[in-house]
């Protein structure tokens, strides 16, 4: 605002100075004719006086000649002074035109600066007020995401007006899911970015703001970024980056929990590796941050199928919310050796990740239509099945099943008794080895596809 007032003040000063200069120029141009008039009046007097004092040496003819010469001299003087007057008027008009052009250019530039300043102000503050949350954790992981610039590492306190506008007043047509925190809406903020807005009504907790501050500056390429939040007396909202491909389950199984075969082994290994890096990053913080509610539905995919872990850091909110009821599919991801939430360890997240691996490699939901016994689940089947080949997703190719068996063995270790479970760092290393080993398989497939394409071009 101060900058706008300064620009306007500068405009007024420039206009006053230029107007004063224009007045002086016009005054100088009009001063010329007065002098011209005086010289015209004075000149005939001088000529007349000189003629009266001359002796009459000539006769009537000489007088007539002198009378004839006098008007000719006056006419020359008038023409001479008239040319000067015209030149002065033209010069003054030209100077005034230049001054007017300068004034117009200055005003135009000032208006452009004002518009640019207003646009910059509206872009930098898409919600009013918007305040940054203080850093609540220390980050020392080797997987720190270096792709987020400094100005993006601030979680904003958004206004309810902006959130209502972003979701069409929380229209049902914008609902894209429902999770532990409540309904999830797709929204469009004022800065043009798509977001996922989680809204929780009435069942509020005073731990909301402390937990927001705790995760405000946790950034990693395999973690869903928290963009903003809002809280009032009857609702709490969390605003995350929007990932268009949804959770991994949408690409693994149908509504009955059976395989649909959308993902090949290479993509499944890449998704597993990304999710494991996200969890390992949380465990590497000081102090460590455990997810506590990891499942397949919490692994989301962006437009490039990069896996990102969501719903981390809000364990107290989710624990209290779960007391109202939970589904059996989610319960299967919980560590059976976990008795109290206070005893939660890294190995409990590892167990949940093992169940996720079983779903990923089998292509089946942890509870699906093919399970006759309600108490039976995917973990029970994996531990009690004699052959691993029957458990691997049948939609995978024969050459891919070897890598599938290696992932199965890793998953079974993760769901073993607590003291035998590996760390997330070890899981990341093992998945990286599997990824390197299966890479030649897909390069060979690509070469074969290229050969077939080249051969087919011969017949075009």
From TrEMBL:
It is an enzyme of class 2 (transferase). The chain crosses the membrane at residues 86-109. It is found in: Cell membrane. ATP binds at residue 198. Its EC number is 2.7.11.1. PROSITE patterns: PROTEIN_KINASE_ATP, PROTEIN_KINASE_DOM. It is a single-pass membrane protein. It catalyses: L-seryl-[protein] + ATP = O-phospho-L-seryl-[protein] + ADP + H(+); L-threonyl-[protein] + ATP = O-phospho-L-threonyl-[protein] + ADP + H(+). GO terms for cellular component: plasma membrane. Pfam families: PK_Tyr_Ser-Thr. Residues 170-460 form the Protein kinase domain. Keywords: ATP-binding, Cell membrane, Kinase, Membrane, Nucleotide-binding, Serine/threonine-protein kinase, Signal, Transferase, Transmembrane, Transmembrane helix. InterPro entries: Kinase-like_dom_sf, PERK1-13-like, Prot_kinase_dom, Protein_kinase_ATP_BS, Ser-Thr/Tyr_kinase_cat_dom. Gene3D superfamilies: Phosphorylase Kinase, domain 1, Transferase(Phosphotransferase) domain 1. Residues 1-20 form the signal peptide. One of its GO terms (molecular function) is protein serine/threonine kinase activity. SUPFAM superfamilies: Protein kinase-like (PK-like). This is non-specific serine/threonine protein kinase. The gene is LOC101513961.
């Amino acid at each position: 605002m101060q900058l706008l007032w300064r620009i306007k003040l500068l405009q007024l000063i420039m206009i006053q100075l230029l107007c004063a200069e224009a007045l002086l120029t016009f005054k100088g141009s009009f001063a010329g004719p007065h002098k011209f008039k005086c010289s015209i009046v004075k000149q005939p007097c001088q000529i007349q006086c000189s003629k009266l004092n001359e002796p009459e040496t000539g006769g009537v003819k000489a007088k007539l000649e002198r009378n004839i010469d006098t008007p000719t001299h006056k006419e020359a003087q008038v023409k001479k002074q008239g040319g000067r007057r015209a030149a002065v008027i033209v010069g003054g008009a030209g100077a005034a035109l230049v001054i007017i052009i300068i004034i117009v250019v200055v005003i135009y530039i000032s208006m452009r600066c004002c518009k640019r300043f207003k646009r910059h102000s509206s872009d930098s503050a898409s919600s009013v007020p918007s305040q940054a949350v203080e850093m609540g954790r220390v980050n020392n992981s080797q997987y720190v995401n270096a792709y987020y610039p400094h100005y993006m590492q601030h979680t904003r306190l958004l206004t309810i007006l902006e959130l209502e506008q972003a979701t069409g007043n929380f229209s049902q047509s914008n609902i894209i899911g429902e999770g532990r925190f409540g309904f999830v809406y797709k929204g469009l903020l004022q800065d043009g970015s798509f977001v996922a807005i989680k809204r929780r009504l009435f069942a509020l907790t005073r731990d909301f703001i402390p937990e927001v501050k705790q995760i405000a500056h946790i950034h990693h390429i395999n973690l869903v970024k928290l963009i903003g939040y809002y809280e009032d007396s009857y609702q709490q909202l969390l605003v995350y980056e929007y990932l268009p491909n949804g959770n991994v389950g949408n690409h693994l199984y149908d509504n009955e929990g059976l395989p649909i075969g959308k993902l090949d082994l290479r993509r499944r290994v890449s998704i597993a590796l990304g999710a494991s890096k996200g969890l390992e990053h949380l465990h590497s913080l000081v102090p460590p941050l455990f997810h506590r509610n990891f499942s397949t539905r919490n692994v989301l995919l962006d437009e490039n199928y990069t896996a990102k872990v969501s719903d981390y850091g809000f364990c107290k909110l989710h624990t209290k919310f779960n007391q109202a009821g939970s589904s059996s599919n989610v319960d299967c991801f919980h560590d059976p050796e976990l008795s109290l939430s206070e005893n939660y360890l890294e190995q409990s997240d590892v167990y949940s990740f093992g169940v996720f691996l079983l779903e990923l490699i089998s292509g089946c939901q942890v509870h699906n239509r093919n399970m006759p016994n309600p108490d039976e689940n995917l973990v029970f089947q994996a531990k009690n099945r004699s052959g691993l080949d029957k458990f691997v997703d049948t939609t995978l190719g024969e050459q891919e099943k070897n890598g599938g068996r290696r992932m199965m063995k890793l998953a079974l270790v993760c769901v073993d008794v607590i003291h035998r479970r590996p760390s997330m760092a070890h899981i990341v290393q093992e998945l990286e080895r599997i990824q390197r080993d299966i890479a030649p398989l897909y390069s060979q497939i690509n070469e074969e596809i290229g050969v077939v394409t080249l051969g087919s071009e011969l017949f075009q």
